[in-house]
Amino acid sequence: MWEACHGKTYLGEGTTTRMRMLAERYQLQSTHARYNQYTADPTCPLCLKEPETITHFLMECAVLEQTRRPKVSGILAQLEGRGLKTPTTAHEWCLTILNGGRLLQTTGVQLESRLTKLETACIRFCHTVHIERDTRIDSMLMDKF
Description:
The chain is mainly alpha-helical. Helix content is 61%, strand content 0%. It has one domain.
């Protein structure tokens, strides 16, 4: 598991957040619903439109678009700078972000500063979207009281 994060412990919580996503231990509404079918609604608490899966959370939720857009642009620039395939679907983007340099190593790319920058960008993407989601949910809960 730590290999997928390349031991980037200096990135602190971002690495932990991404590792939980990789291990399918990141708590989303669809996860709650899977284990508590009668008490949890799998619908995304932010957009209220689709089940909150990891793909929806990271790449599709319209509420998180403003947060996601600049981070995706940075990852795209890193991919294009290495001449690597650009993801075309939300699912492919999700795999690229969660696996970062790990997937790229299978293509024979040498681990160098650019790959490290890609890895770091993917970790920061996960953490930034996570913080935005938590902040918005906390705000929604506070508005109820």
